[in-house]
């Protein structure tokens, strides 16, 4: 039985896993870098260990992490997202050392982490994939030949890519020639692999992904879909569950496709199958994320399930706590990734001290974060500082509550994406559920808001100044 878990992560996801541990009566071990010594996860865990002076090396060292888990008597490791979560080596070392890895086995992580191998597996399973190259392309000549066959525009993608990086749209052979070396070098630097492949670029698709759970007894269920079409440069900013743009038929169809995909690779634990939905209503498999996702929260809100607890139960060899017909779909949830970036200045990240923090509350509002008043956000990691998750009986109520919740929130000292999200929430196309992955690029005016319109920045700076003056 799992009694003690090492959390191989930091920030809000480490805190999220700690909450599940606490509710399950499981002891917890946190790891941290020197730069993270004031991190909330460090304070909240039962035990915390510094794993290095360097900002990243410790979080990225699987041998050191598993050694620590063994030394501290942990039965299992939760990898969170990012860092080593999709690195098969961590899962493999866990297996070798008799520590349970809370995720699928190393072979599945490796196979699904390779986007061309994942495509091959899906083709074999009869899951439709975006038209593209049969595997990786060996060089520019092959890329040009494939592009001529599938037709422009094409997407040039890093085979091991993630986090929206290593993807470039090419509209002409000249653009492909120009981008080729750039994507190869980006991929090498960011993912340690020079492999690239081509997909047909689906123009203005919706990003629809399905959360699945699979236990070690062969049961696979899906927890409905999330619409992650509100993106900037292929990175998700706002996510919605369920998608306001699917018919009930499309919803059950994509759910079945996801279950088929997971079964085809003997998947175990929580995972997400990402699809593109074309303007003609076709779903194409895009990739699988073999870990808990940033936006798992909205699925929790509409189903009432705790996905992290389910992950731990599955790793413990237990059966899923429910069958497909028992999975609820209740209301609508929206998640906002609050980033410390200035939307009015090309989303320039700005890491600094949170001089004042006040979390939103009231009906249907949840905040997942690791910030607090006085917290200095280290510049070495993600710019996402909080997730605000709002639930309503339907999309309209969720929108109204979101505007209210974002208005309630105070994050002072650093610019954030909150006022930008309020602009999106007021846009008629968003409100009527008509948007695709091109929405933000098509509406640059949404970043040109006046700060007077929201309670953010200017007002909050004044509040912070008064607070500082009276010594709060
Ligand atoms: P999600 O799929 O959960 O929506 P994102 O794509 O936004 O998540 O990625 C979550 C975090 O994980 C980000 O910090 C991102 O940079 C990181 N990440 C995702 N995939 C990779 C990868 N292949 N290599 C390195 N970092 C990654
Ligand atoms: P990552 O591993 O970085 O998450 P994905 O393959 O999931 O990369 O793609 C990220 C985003 O890029 C998608 O959500 C979508 O907006 C866009 N994208 C990827 N492939 C295509 C494609 N073939 N056509 C159009 N858009 C695409
Ligand atoms: Mg993706």
Itemize the secondary structure elements and their pairings.
Elements: E1 4-7, H1 11-24, E2 27-32, H2 40-44, E3 47-50, H3 62-71, E4 76-78, H4 88-97, E5 100-101, H5 106-113, H6 115-125, H7 140-150, E6 154-158, E7 167-170, H8 173-191, E8 196-200, E9 206-214, E10 220-232, E11 235-241, H9 248-264, E12 269-277, E13 283-289, H10 296-303, H11 307-315, E14 332-339, E15 341-342, E16 348-349, E17 356-358, E18 365-369, E19 384-392, H12 395-408, E20 410-412, H13 418-426, H14 428-431, H15 439-442, H16 457-469
Parallel strand pairs: 1-2, 1-4, 2-3, 4-5
Antiparallel strand pairs: 6-7, 6-8, 9-10, 9-12, 10-11, 11-14, 12-13, 14-19, 15-16, 17-20, 18-19
Helix pairs in contact: 3-4, 4-5, 7-8, 12-13
The structure holds adenosine-5'-diphosphate (2 copies) and magnesium ion.
Magnesium ion (MG) binds at residues 274, 287.
């Amino acid at each position: 039985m799992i009694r003690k878990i090492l959390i191989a992560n930091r920030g809000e996801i480490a805190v999220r896993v700690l909450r599940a541990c606490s509710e399950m009566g499981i002891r917890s071990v946190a790891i941290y870098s020197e730069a993270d010594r004031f991190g909330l996860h460090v304070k909240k865990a039962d035990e915390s260990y510094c794993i290095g002076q360097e900002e990243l090396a410790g979080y990225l060292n699987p041998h050191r992490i598993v050694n620590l888990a063994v030394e501290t008597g942990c039965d299992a490791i939760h990898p969170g997202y990012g860092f080593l979560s999709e690195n098969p080596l961590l899962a493999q070392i866990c297996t070798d050392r008799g520590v349970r890895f809370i995720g699928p086995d190393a072979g599945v992580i490796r196979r699904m982490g390779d986007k061309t191998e994942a495509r091959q597996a899906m083709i074999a399973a009869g899951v439709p994939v975006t038209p593209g190259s049969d595997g990786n392309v060996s060089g520019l000549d092959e890329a040009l030949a494939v592009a001529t066959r599938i037709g422009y525009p094409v997407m040039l993608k890093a085979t091991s890519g993630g986090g929206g990086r290593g993807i470039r749209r090419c509209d002409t052979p000249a653009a492909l020639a120009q981008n080729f070396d750039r994507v190869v070098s980006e991929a090498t630097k960011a993912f340690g692999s020079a492999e690239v492949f081509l997909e047909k670029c689906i123009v203005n698709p919706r990003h629809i992904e399905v959360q699945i759970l699979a236990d070690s007894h062969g049961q696979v269920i899906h927890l409905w879909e999330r619409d992650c079409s509100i993106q900037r440069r292929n990175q998700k900013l706002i996510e919605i569950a369920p998608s306001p743009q699917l018919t009930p038929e499309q919803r059950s169809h994509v759910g079945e496709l996801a279950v088929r995909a997971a079964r085809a690779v003997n998947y175990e634990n929580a995972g997400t199958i990402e699809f593109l939905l074309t303007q003609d209503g076709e779903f194409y498999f895009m990739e699988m994320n073999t870990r808990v996702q940033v936006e798992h929260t909205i699925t929790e809100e509409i189903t009432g399930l705790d996905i992290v607890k389910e992950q731990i139960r599955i790793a413990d060899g237990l059966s899923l706590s429910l069958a497909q017909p028992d999975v609820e779909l209740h209301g609508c949830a929206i998640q906002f990734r609050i980033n410390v970036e200035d939307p009015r200045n090309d989303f320039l990240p700005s890491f600094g001290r949170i001089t004042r923090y006040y979390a939103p509350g009231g009906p249907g509002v949840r905040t997942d974060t690791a910030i607090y008043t006085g917290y200095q956000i280290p510049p070495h990691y993600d710019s996402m500082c909080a997730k605000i998750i709002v639930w309503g009986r339907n999309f309209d109520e969720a929108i109204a509550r979101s505007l209210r919740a974002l208005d309630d929130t105070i994050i002072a000292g650093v610019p954030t994406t909150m006022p930008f999200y309020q602009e999106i929430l007021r846009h008629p196309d968003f409100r009527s559920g008509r948007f695709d992955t091109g929405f933000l690029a098509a509406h640059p005016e949404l970043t040109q808001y006046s700060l007077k319109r929201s309670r953010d920045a200017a007002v909050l700076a004044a509040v912070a100044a008064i607070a500082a003056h009276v010594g709060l």
